[in-house]
Design brief:
47% helix
Length: 51
């Protein structure tokens, strides 16, 4: 099932599969990491370039 989510950085809306969201949440729980929201591909690339 596809849903529309908003990028946590720029606010752009992106369509994604619910399965991907669930996988991300499970991975965060397994690593005991903090869930910070989803980013669009452009914001992820910009973040990678900064590091």
């Amino acid at each position: 099932m596809k849903i529309t989510i908003e990028c946590g950085s720029c606010g752009r809306t992106v369509e994604t599969d619910v399965v991907n969201i669930i996988k991300t949440l499970i991975e965060c729980a397994e690593r005991k990491s903090v869930y910070g929201g989803f980013l669009c591909e452009d914001c992820v690339k910009a973040l990678e370039e900064e590091n």
